[in-house]
Amino acid sequence: MNKGKIKLGLIGGGPNSFIGIVHRIAAYMGEQYQLVGGVFDIDHASGIAFAEKLELDTSRAYESLEVFIEKELALPADERIEVVSILTPNFLHHSMAMKLVDAGFNVICEKPITITAAEAVELEQLVERKKVVFCLTHTYTGYPMVRQMKAMIAAGAIGKIQKVDAQYYQGWINPFIHDKDKRAQVWRLDPKKSGQSCCFGDIGVHAFNLIEYTTGLEVEKVLADIDTLYPDNPLDVDGTALIRTKDGVKGVICASQIATGEENNISIMVYGDKGGLKWEQENPTYLTYMQEGKPAQIFKPGNPYNAEFAQESTKIAPGHPEGLFDAMGNIYKGTALAIRGEKVREGAFPGVKDGVRGMKFIEAVLESNKQGQAWIEIK
């Protein structure tokens, strides 16, 4: 069992990285991790300057992943970085994760886990062989009220599930998509960097993950209609997917990056024969519980009426809003428990299997659209 703080390394996440700040703050929150070093930037000098700014040992600001692995493995085990967060563009995730896992490092990876489902399965098999901890940062699973939703559904609060509905709407691509030259400069619209999908690969998969996470159901088939908006734009920026679970529950996932005026509007609604639950990320401290013929109830974090899992995921007193940093912090907390070999509650952090499910969902969506909106099985 590990003693002291877990030594953390970052690949990417350096200067001007929004997601890097999110991960660093999340790691600091539970006082479980100590950032030690990493490959902070493609430019080594910039990476060293970043390490100096954070008051880190600049000798552990490495110029490449290969040098990182070589130098860290040469250190005594009690000095070595134990877990590495991969915060690079999508196309680098697979190769970097494979090298780190093969070298015996625990990994925390931004999604998507890989570019293809085949790559995800290959990584899953390596993780199982090497017996390392692998966390995929589906951040929204870390919100206390999402965990409360999961606990209430499992406890039968809404009865037998009969409909699921999730959406993720953004509008950030609007300023670029209508200008051919501008959209050509957006890396998320470049298949070489982003992968097979932009909208569903980036945000639609979050909605999919939330459905499976909160309900415990497994989506079996999808029927999708996606839109690139312009014929010369190679990747989707909008779409809708009908879903069917193995239990026969039907639902819908809507995702868009051209929803004008929307910022980060992800929401999920689950309806059963006894009640319904709905949650919105832009108002994350409110979980609405609805029952036929009764007034709607609002559940909020930090209160003793919440499930134990939700209470464990709350850091401050009721009435003090928690947000994205806190949600990511809960995922880092769960990963720390796993690294230390302690008991980990189911759902404490997304793992490699969630990454595989996500990639298979994305590919099923693309294949359904390609076949003219046919039902495609997620194998």
What does this molecule look like?
- By secondary structure, the protein is α/β, with parallel strands linked by helices.
- The protein has 2 domains: 6-139, 3-Layer(aba) Sandwich (Rossmann fold), CATH 3.40.50; 144-311 and 352-370, Dihydrodipicolinate Reductase, domain 2.
- It contains 13 helices and 14 strands.
- The strands form 2 sheets. The protein has a 9-stranded mixed β-sheet.
- The radius of gyration is 21 Å and the shape is globular.
- The two termini are 37 Å apart.
- Residues 7-136 form the Gfo/Idh/MocA-like oxidoreductase N-terminal domain.
- InterPro entries: Gfo/Idh/MocA-like_OxRdtase_N, Gfo/Idh/MocA_oxidoreduct, GFO_IDH_MocA-like_dom, NAD(P)-bd_dom_sf.
- This is Gfo/Idh/MocA family protein.
Question: What labels would you give this structure?
Answer:
five-stranded parallel sheet, GFO_IDH_MocA-like_dom, 36% helix, globular, alpha/beta, Dihydrodipicolinate Reductase, domain 2, Rossmann fold
